[in-house]
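Progress narrative, work stream C.
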Amino acid sequence: MKKAIYYIVLTLSILGIPIFIFGIINTMVSLKYETENSTDCISLVTGQDLCLTVNVLKGLVLLCLSSVILLLAFKKRILKSNN
C-alpha cells in the first residue's frame, strides 16, 4: 500500500468516527421529536425508519474504529510490504 493511500484511509477513518457519532445523536433527537411513542421507530415527518439509521451509524462507527486500530497496529507491515 502506498504511503499516501495509507494516510488517506487513516485520516478518513479518524474523521468518520465523530461524524457518525453526530449522526447518531441527530437521529436520536429525531426519534424523540418525530415519533408519538418512545417505542416507535418510524418518523411521522419523513416516514424513515430511524432505528435502522441508528444501527447503521453504530456499525459505521465500529468499522471506522476497528480500521484505525488495525491500520495503526500493522503500520510497519502495511507500509513495508510495498517497498
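Work stream C, second folded protein:
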Amino acid sequence: MAEYIQIGALIEKDNGLDAYGDISKSDGVIYALLETGRSNDLFSEKQFGEFGEAAVLTLVVDAKQKNQVLEDLAKNLGLNEKGEGFVFEETALLKCS
C-alpha cells in the first residue's frame, strides 16, 4: 500500500476558502494547496458573465487516513447539501529520492 494519496476538489471559491483553513489542519493531511480561478461549468453562480469563481483544493494525505479526510472534506464543503462541487481521489503518490 502506498504511503500517500492525493485528494482533489473542484469547488466554488468561497467554499474552498472556508474549507482550506479547516481541512489543512486535519489529522492525516501532509500538504494542502488552494488555487483559484474562473470556470464556465459546474457552478450555478456566475459572477463574470458565463464564468464563476472556482477553487481547486489539492491535498496530500496519509494513505491510512484517506477515508476520514475524504469524509471530513465532503462534510466541510457541504457537498451533500449544496450539490455543487467535485471531490476525487487520485492514485497513490510515489516518493522519489
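Residues 66-77 form the longest helix (12 residues). No further action is required on this item.
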